[in-house]
Amino acid sequence: MLSELASGDDVMTEAASHLAKAGGKRFRPMFAILAAQFGPRPDASEVITAATVVEMIHLATLYHDDVMDEAPMRRGAQSANARWSNSIAILSGDYLFARASRLVSTLGPDPVRIIAETFAELVTGQMRETIGARDVDPIDHYLKVVWEKTGSLIAAAGRFGAMTSGANVDDVERLSRLGDIVGTAFQLSDDIIDISSATGDSGKTPGTDLREGVHTLPVLYALADDDAASNRLRELLVDDGGAAKPLTDDAEVAEALGLLVESRGMAQANATLRGYADEAGQVLGALPEGPAHSAFTSLVDYTIARTG
């Protein structure tokens, strides 16, 4: 990936490689490589190309997200916008998208079409999140955003890995669907951990979403309830115009977290997460047994177990 980002221009290469060198889980390329194990050519060079493409696209979205969120840090390092400027960060993200597009073109027309559709889903999800729920159900809106911003790219990773290794058509579709489910479920588990964990297992300080005025699934479920705790949560988290209100007072953050942990909304969010896990189990049940199948099963189990 780093060789693909080397442009000959020192500033562009350094900026575009900044987040790649900062580390990260590499979840999406791992998913693509695991999906490739279901085909007869899991070691094909095209598999590595496909895995590289999805990671480059993910990195590109991080550059743009950090600009929109005015984030000073990413992966334990300065964000590109903090180290250089918003303009450099935006251009670095654009460059990553461009290099990913060049790389995917070597895989043929179908991968180009798939990645173009995934680009559109990622951008639509970001736009949908920025605009807000408006006149649609906020829970449906939130789940749609999570799928577009997170599930869609992991679905593409599963599809690409399976396609490039020569997996049969049915298994390609199953692995794409598995990526969709696992990606969405992992984000929902992060939402739950942000509220329920005292140790920041999601990589964020508990209550970070509340401080930023972000209403995740447990919050949305709780706000839709009509008991005394939900009424108090609305006072804390919603302004007079009905919009999400960031919490800046530590005592109010602690109070909101306490109410949410005990709320029916948290139980509903956990039930929704288990529903995704059950659906993933059904998809896995139709895939051939083997080491990759076991790895995916462990991944689904971990996604549930990490919420406690």
UniProtKB/TrEMBL annotation:
GO biological process: isoprenoid biosynthetic process
Obligatory cofactor(s): Mg(2+)
Keyword Repeat: no
Protein family: Belongs to the FPP/GGPP synthase family.
Pfam families from the UniProt entry: polyprenyl_synt
Highest rank taxon of the organism: Bacteria
PANTHER family given in the database record: ALL TRANS-POLYPRENYL-DIPHOSPHATE SYNTHASE PDSS1, GERANYLGERANYL PYROPHOSPHATE SYNTHASE
Pathway where this protein functions: Isoprenoid biosynthesis
Molecular functions per Gene Ontology: metal ion binding; prenyltransferase activity
SUPFAM superfamilies: Terpenoid synthases
Keywords from the UniProt entry: Magnesium, Metal-binding, Transferase
Gene3D superfamilies reported for this sequence: Farnesyl Diphosphate Synthase (1.10.600.10)
The protein's name: Putative polyprenyl diphosphate synthase
Species in which this protein is naturally found: Gordonia sputi NBRC 100414
